[in-house]
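Ticket reopened. Same input as before:
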Amino acid sequence: MGEALLEVDDLHTHFHLKNKTVRAVNGVSFAIKRGEIVGIAGESGAGKSVACLSILRLVPSPGRIERGRILFTGEDLLTKSERQMRELRGQTVSMVFEDPLNSLDPAYTVGNLIGEALILHKGLSKREAWKKAGELLRLVGIPDPERRLDNYAHELSGGMQQRVMIAIALSCDPALLIADNPTTALDVTIQIQILDLVKQLRDRLGMGVLWITHDLGVVAKLCDRVVIMYAGEVMEQGPVYGVLKHPRHPYTRRLIDALPKLGRPEQRLMPIEGRPPDPANLPAGCPFAPRCHKARADCETTEVPLIETGDGRSVRCLFPEE
Amino acid sequence: MATPDPVSTPVLLEVRALVKHFPVRRGLWASGPPAAVRAVDGISFDIRSGETVGLVGESGCGKTTTGRMIMKLIAPTSGDIRFEGRSIEGISFEQERAYRRQVQMVFQDPYSSLNPRMTVGSIVGYPMRIQNVYPGPARDARIRELLELVGLSRYQASWYPHEFSGGERQRVGIAAALALNPKFVFCDEPVSSLDVSAQAQILNLLKDVRREFNLTILIVTHNLSVVEYLSDRVVVMYLGKIVEVANTADLYRETLHPYSKALISAIPTPDPDVEREREQIILRGEIPSPLNPPTGCRFHTRCQSYIGDVCRDVEPELREVRPGHFTACHLYSGLVAAPAAPAATRAAGQLV
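Engineering reply: fixed in the latest deploy. New output:
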């Protein structure tokens, strides 16, 4: 693991609607080193996807990045022109989306879909691109890759489609791969194949990976570090083992306690009462305070900073667990 | 959770040699016999009264099709389903109406399974209207009682589904399923579209109502941690066949079938220590097409414990390997160990 590849610093992304402002991402900071797999975990509406779209500056209107810095290999992406961003997307930073069938153009064959980026970004000829596309399909573990190049997306299974998405994302040797819930639609035996593939590719190609998921189990299986998000803020982050084994933020603890755990069916699940706050009307203090067992009066009113607690971890809580 | 005593508890539902083939339309000039998706291909199991059975497997294994046949939403190609000893096929209209009163269903997607134009009260009251029970003011009282039972408040009866969160909608679905006091409830992936916290609430709710109503439940899911949490027994399916049946604890602690082992090892669990220590089985390839399932054992194309031609050629039978623990795998059938077995002889013959 080397120097920081990506540093997101105090990112705010808001959606300005007619009569309200939805604060989807509210001061998020994290970093990814080269060759590191970082997971962003949290429930739906936590702002995970918007944070990742912000990195590529793909936030749909009326969303806007209000504040913050996104340093990629030291350069701030927020100061780049749209043209420079287009150079970057799909080439040095690429993205895999949740639903492969909706992300793959049904009118093109797999060979054309993969070849497009190669011709566009790498200036390969059509023939060269086709050949490279075949190699990429082999790399992501698709059997009989040359024949598959002539297939359309709908002719492939869900797992195959997701492999094609990953092949497209890898086509230009990206330094950073961003994946938004890429395995939720897949069966578990296929999911574990994909997770294993991503680990192998990371080892071989040395890219950084940002993996968005709502499944802490996937985090435990795949990631080196994890960022736990809630209501647009980072609640806790650090190495996976420490965060999942000894969570310091009550939200992380509650999230883990709400999951059924293998081998312990007699342990009653502990759901988190209440609902996440309305992102258009966030509380002044800790956003989790209204649902938190350990909350005291201060929690509702004081803005809580993200505090480093040593061993590469940080937590946003006035009364963290030790 | 106490597992019902197998001897004294009567069997509520029997599934016998159940088959469902979906014919596939082929081109005008296609030759050969008509093709069919063999979604469920000869399965048998029992569900005892008061028991919760989990039916697990990956997409295309036939688990939902099985449930839908039990619900009489689709008709089996062959085989039999018996409820309280009587077949549910070929019964009169009145008998069918009575059957439908006793079996109910909780759907996967709480967003599309509730009519957006109906209030939650009328959704919960609908089964009672159809079956003409709880007439007049008793029905409204019953609706309020059901809503409170599932953790909603009685004044929410006049709300519409869009005013609820996903977890609350699933509560409405459960209230509607309980409206007729059924004996049997089929839950089709009841929590797969919910967030972690709502999922925990619904799982706890199902556990509670099961005890309160003495319900018999069949829960279909791909999530093995959910199954472990809720079920007394588990049936594992692969490509239209049952590969293993066992009490939940036995299935997870003494897994027999290689497919069940792979499935359990692939469940992500948030405990890093468990993740580090346990055996990681990564299956090769994908699930074959149910249009043309593999010969012999259907799992042999992906099996990590493939032991030879017998797997490819001979279909393993579901056998009781330990008391109450069934599996369909040649590893446990003795077919390989005995040299006189026909399959082994044939394999040797091919070598010569």
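Residues 335-352 of chain B have pLDDT under 50 and may be disordered. Chain B touches chain A through 42 residues (CB under 8 Å). Please confirm and we'll close it.
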